[in-house]
Amino acid sequence: MEKTELSKAEWLSKAERYCARAEHCAADVRRKLYEWGAPADLSGFIEENLYANGFLDDDRYCRAYVHDKVEYHSWGRLKIRAGLQALQLPSCSVREALGAIDENVYFRNLRSLIRSRQSDPEEKRLRFLLQRGFTCDEIKKCTF
């Protein structure tokens, strides 16, 4: 099927299938539409429909992103916030999702990262943890 021969409804259907497979945000959809070669003037129409039909939801995306980055990647709040801001998500959704982080899991991850880098010099370990998005106060809380 030629990219240029798709109708509005076909582009929308393709975007819906993309969103149905995994949680995505509007920036992901815009990037994917560009990669697929969709006409630029369809982006707004497709986004509006995806939001209206529940395929896109900023709050839901932020919660899933935060959960995955804490649970599976052991990221700190600062790195997670930066990742969400880069996707131009509403700050209220970002704040709410970050506020819902399970502190027990968060600090368990931090302590585990500290233990895994125990043999590193203190400066190198601190730099690693800061790059992971943890604050100095959080790191101090777990090391003293």
State the order of secondary-structure elements, H for helix, E for strand.
HHHHHHHHH
Q: How much strand? A: under 5%
Low-confidence spans: none
Mean pLDDT across every amino acid position: 95
Fraction of helical residues: 55-70%
Total of domains: 2
What profile does the largest beta sheet have? none
Q: How many beta-strand runs? A: 0
Please count the helical segments.
Answer: 9
C-alpha termini separation? 62 Å
Radius of gyration: 19 Å
Q: Could you say which structural class the secondary elements and strand pairing correspond to?
A: mainly alpha
Q: What would you call the shape?
A: elongated
Describe this structure as you would to a colleague.
- 69% of the residues lie in helices and 0% in strands.
- It has two domains: 3-56, Arc Repressor Mutant, subunit A (Orthogonal Bundle), CATH 1.10.10; 59-143, no CATH class.
- The protein has 144 residues and is mainly α.
- The mean pLDDT is 95.
- α4 (58-71) crosses α6.
Write the layout of secondary structure elements.
Layout: H1 8-21, H2 26-36, H3 43-52, H4 58-71, H5 77-86, H6 91-99, H7 103-116, H8 122-131, H9 136-143
Helix pairs in contact: 4-6, 5-6, 7-9
